[in-house]
């Protein structure tokens, strides 16, 4: 029984270490995933929210994309998927993903600067529309 | 029209294929093949393989002599028990799985076949009179 | 043909139901006729699914755009190859393809076992049919029927996403599906063993080959996926902790755990409940992986669909299987438990158990990280996201422990390792570990994670190298053979062990390559024709890259391609001329923005990776305007990446070695004996 007891302790110990790693991992690396509406609300309510890393999903506004020549800088406007009146500008300092189009849905990670511009560090474009089409799309 | 005929033929063929055994009383075997491994044979094979591995490990100098002898003694006893159980099973005496389990467990705990030296605890080969590790005389004859 | 295929799918439904019912009934009542019918039903379902798949293929080849699925993933201009492989281009066809492969493996299993393992087969057939039935039901009733027709016939289809028009992307899903579906077979045998109570050593030996094969497919499938990402996604990365990637990793981890712990069950009769649970978990995780990629529940670069109905159906199925198996395991608990205990902390059993725990810990972390956002949203209403930082933080330490165990496991003694044994077997490898670590430190390679990883790699390689060396030498001495022959015979005599060692070496190579990422170089330049830039590799040499200019070709024979803008970059390494590299932008008929094709130059030490990020003036470039040749070029240097692919190859080789059948001498001897016995038996039968 002594041996078994020791093994249970060992097992529990290992499980505890892994759990601890996961716990701190999540709490230290998780980011809020907000819509533009939620982001603006947070920023208004809490000015220090500018420091916080967040993930935002929205849609690029048609025609808002611009590329700053000479610098590796792209700018565009993102609007909320539901309430299109809520928008904010984005700065992106990296190569554009191939799937970036004029009205693409994007998921951005970064932070909202004090001047109201969102500095994005990661950008994911939603490929959803590329893989699935609703039958109506084919009516053309 | 051809499509309809084709589809019906497919459906018919499939249904006939599946129902035939039930209707005509064709049976798939449910018995164990006599060449198949039985449980006792499987254990015997594992025990013998383990012995072989120990030999190779010793020859490859992964085990030193002391560990080798000790391990070999245990494994030999287990292999013997497994062989015995298998013989019993094959001759139809019916090996009792639980008995076999218990016997192997006992061996692993150091009791049963093979002698454990009282002085140093070394597990000696079956039939040893003196302990291979410390030289003390070992308790009487081993069983099996 | 297509309509016939659709019809075949409908017929498959009652056939599968019949097969499942009869399999279980036949096993219960021990009636051979029911069982035969059930087994035939498996062949029948396979046949019908072939017809269904051919039906879909015919629709693609015939440009039948009245079918929603064909219209969504094909167009008239699509290359023949992608029309043929269109079956698995999208969600619906993939599910049918999955069912087809499962039916294929089920047929092989039933055929292989027509004369053996008969006590298991009725239930095995029942379980396999059950899973097939599930997929058929999903296809027919969950709004994912590949034969669904539109109310009208479009003139042309939407075409295939250009990122999918790539060799690796076409090969990757099938290899993964081969891995996922083949796990159903061991699962079926495990359930059969639980049902008929034959929980002894045999069911492990029966299923070992299948599990190893599935594991091989899964490993290869995952590596192919990494290769695709590396070449096609154009960021120079090969793993993103994407939910779908994670989903394919989970069953791989539990299957690896299982492969190791069955050795303990075999030699010491322990961990039977554990092993049963691992088989069950692996199967459930393969279904989970299917579910994750088909339900759109988690956003991902891969997600195919958004329907929720299918999510409920999959969850229901998984829940039922989980509940059923737990009940079965509890019912058989007495038979599964063994009296044996691990004798010592320092023993191979202990190392294997620890290895299992680490693998499961890894899997748990990946699983949790993947679904945490969902759970958090459900519980708190907050939407949060968990990304690569989490996975790296948690998994790197666990991964390193696993790597070390890959070296410790093979040489630590069974039952109890004495101090002598430890000293003998570990003193050299640990010295090598320290020596390598110190050398790296002093030569400037001080990145902590990379340093530790490479030191442990050296440790494991030393151990395995010594194993091979000692074994070969011992055999050469005993058998009086030359070393080369001794080596081959050594491996041949114990394929499992040595094949396993080869796989461990492969894992070392892969870890070695992963650690190279610590020294990645990433630079961006704006270049005009004639510009030269220099990029220094972490190995010290310098690349001089000269942008030669842009060539544009229009159409180029591929009917789906509008134009290609190819940037040529000539490469010099420390002054020596190397082959020209080209990276391009391609505009497809069906695209909105051009796709990037990268240029990769692979050497043993590193990959030089060039990306044409942007054209200054796309219109001008396409119109061959001499002033519009400016580009943004991204240059990456990725140390050791080539070792991942090489490691993958070694892994496959090692698994083949472990799988290779050895002649069952006992069986041959028995057969010889039985021939002699046959005559009197036949005489006896005449009575």
Distance between the termini of chain B: 79 Å
| pLDDT < 50 stretches of chain B | 140-144
Counting DSSP H or I runs of 4 or more residues, the number of helices of chain B is 4
Helix content of chain B: 55-70%
**SSE class of chain C:** alpha+beta
Average pLDDT rating of chain C? 86
Outline of chain C, from the CA principal axes?
A: globular
Query: How many beta-strand segments of chain B?
Result: 2
Major sheet details of chain B: 2 strands, antiparallel
Assembly status: heterotrimer
Q: Low-confidence stretches of chain C at least 5 residues in length (pLDDT < 50)?
A: 299-306, 676-687
Give, in spatial order, the strands making up the sheet with the most strands of chain B: 1-2
Name the chain pair whose interface involves the most residues. Answer: B-C, 51 and 65 residues
Structural class of chain B, please?
Answer: mainly alpha
Beta fraction of chain B? under 5%
Largest sheet of chain C: 5 strands, antiparallel
Tell me the Rg of chain C in angstroms.
28 Å
Distance between the termini of chain C: 55 Å
Tally the helices of chain C.
22
Helix-residue proportion of chain C: 55-70%
Structure summarized in a few sentences:
Chain A is of the alpha+beta class and 140 residues long. Chain A contains 3 helices and 7 strands.
Description:
The complex is a heterotrimer of chains A (140), B (144) and C (687). Chain A has 140 residues and is an alpha+beta fold. Helix content of chain A is 30%, strand content 31%. A five-stranded mixed β-barrel of chain A has the order 2-4-5-7-6. In chain A, a hairpin with a 7-residue loop joins strand 4 (73-79) and strand 5. The N and C termini of chain A lie far apart (75 Å). In chain B, 57% of the residues lie in helices and 3% in strands. Chain B has helices spanning 2-24, 39-59, 65-90, 97-108, and strands spanning 115-116, 123-124. Chain B has a two-stranded antiparallel sheet. In chain B, helix 2 (39-59) packs antiparallel against helix 3 and helix 3 runs antiparallel to helix 4 (97-108). With 687 residues, chain C is an alpha+beta fold. Among the domains of chain C are: 1-165, no CATH class; 418-493; 521-643, no CATH class. In chain C, a hairpin with a 6-residue loop joins strand 4 and strand 5. The interface between B and C is large, with 51 and 65 residues. Strand 1 (31-34) of chain A pairs antiparallel with strand 1 (384-385) of chain C.
